[in-house]
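Q: A reviewer asked whether we had any structural model of the full assembly, not just the individual parts. We don't, so I'm hoping you can provide one. Inputs are below.
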Amino acid sequence: MKKSETPLLDQMRQLTGAPVGEPNTARDPVNQAMIRHWCDAVDDRNPVYTDPEFAEKSVHGGIVAPPTMLQAWTMPGLMSREEREARAPRGPSVLRLLDEAGFTSVVATNCTQAYKRYLRPGDLLTVSHSIEAVSDEKKTALGVGHFVTQLTCYRDQNGEEVATMRFRLLKFRPTERSAGAERRGAPKRSRPVPSINHDNRFFWDGVQAGRLLIQRCFCGKLRHPPGPMCPVCRSLEWEAAEACGRGTVYSYVVAHHPPIPPFEYPNLIVLVELEEGVRIVSNLVDIEPEEVEIGMAVRARFDEVEPDRILLQFERAKG
Amino acid sequence: MSVDFKVVSHFASDLRDRAAIAGIGATEFSKDSGRSEMRLAVEAVTAALEDAGLEPADVDGYSVFSMDNNPAIEVNRQIGGGDLRFFGRVHYGGGAACATVLQAAMAVATGVANTVVCYRAMNERSMQRFGAGVQDRRPMPTAESAHFGWYAPYGLLTPASWVAMSARRYMHEYGATSEDFGRVSVADRKHAATNPAAWFYQQPISLEDHQRSRWIIDPLRLLDCCQESDGAVAVVVTSAERARDLRQPPAMIRAAAQGASHEQQMMTGFYADRITGLPEMGLVAQQLYATAGLTPDDIQTAIIYDHFTPFVLIQLEEFGFCKKGEAKDFIRDGNIELGGRLPINTHGGQLGEAYIHGMNGINEAVRQVRGTAVNPVKDVEHVVVTAGTGVPTSGLILGRD
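A: Here is a predicted structure for the entire assembly that you could use as a starting point for your response.
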């Protein structure tokens, strides 16, 4: 079998265990100043990392570095894009093979570090990388992909292995976004929530309780959308009158674009003239868009459109 | 053309011919300007001053959109402008367009300022798309935020959707069709096709193209909707006397007006007894005609705000160019195209040239008055310009000196 015909998984597994790139030696030996910065940053006040007298009396017999600082010692520092590219490993690599096969997205799944001894000021680390394992093709919530385990070895100035790190990635093929739908696996977006204030709270509380409430002044004027003052008599007093829920379609639209999650398209939105005389915007459900006509009789209903979220909707009136 | 249109004379203001537009400027119109909105603003403002033959140091006032992201003081610092004696902002989106000129004219007519610049600069395609609507607004317990709460939970989230709701009722009451809306688009694109500054230069469309374009929100198709654009436009307003001494022939502000009806809503005028008109635009038209001492018969061409085609028909009715409900017949006869009774949007409008919140239409009206438009209308005496529709709005009548 020619190499170019080797299936992807075989090609990748041939590369496992081989070094990726050249070993890289830390720019500075383990030192007190960087330890102090780290401890300040993570608010670790263990004096064995910073107080020489305390450390001397401890089981360590002297200052040691926090083990979880491991990665900090060999970080390459800020680089320009050109420098980064110049240092990138050449030749075939598992990650490049996956990119070329369409598994272009990446997410880190987990990381494990193992420490063989404490590091002390003066230790100079050298780090080397390899791919330890590649999983079979897996179906995940994000999409189809392969889990890749990178093994990183840290050695000291004597060549002794002092720590290892296993960093696991999922390289996956991004799923197509379907119109109006969120990427599969991502949490579903909720419908926009209304802004609730002193002037409209009664309406939204009413909807949550399955009641269609319209603001009514004591002079008799019905108002929707509601507001604090009656434009007829200027009264600031009002009550919430329950509408019977019957009405007719005054106008309507059928939304197609842009698809905005979580709405499903086409989305039928109506302007209903209630029997009491005010108009209100809502959805018309359980009907095909081509069946809708201006003037048709509709009635209110209250649907749990999302968990714990009741919304006013309308349906065709029966009979 | 004989429409029994009565001008209400008590709406006349004292603004007639007191101020003029002395300079206009603009950037190119694109989908990705590649530079900041502030830079677009200063490019357009300095171009307008250069056009007028004025120095930045002459500027002592600004009148701009509330929605514009570029504070006037910052623009003024950038261009090396003078000390400012007047600065105002006008609310309600594109409804502010002609109102910026109204307020500038009021400032110069009263001596509050001498040279007032109006501008609108936006990366409205590459940075913040208006077509996306209010889907990502964070709910706040304010009146403006609560307003959208009556629509957003049901998916009525975009400017197109708000206009569509009124348009459907208009179709129902007057028998207008999607093709009637399409004719506005066809006229605009015909005019854009011969305007090198237009995004849709050399790209006319047919009515069939319009009818084949996909639904955005039925009854609106893609080609009923204006563009989203990057660009900036500026105008310089000064007194009529001073304008006469400057580089360009003045475009006299024969009348300028704002209007909001007593039942005004922001894009969702769904609650009045009838929702098939734009009463705020009718109010603007009445003030314009009364102030200018003109009637619809005196207008040769018009810039009719065209974010969505249905409201162009309604504006033609509100301005008395045809009777209520008869705009579909008026435009069916080719009246709004070059050579017709009232060519509209001779630059291509916001459907064809660019969507700069109506300000590019003011520039075109000035060019028609000067006689420098790429699609000139013959014997222009007076041009009507309108601003954003469905919102509190404004308008102008510009004319020759």
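A: Points you may want to mention in the reply: The mean pLDDT of chain B is 96. The first strand of chain B starts at residue 19 and ends at 26.
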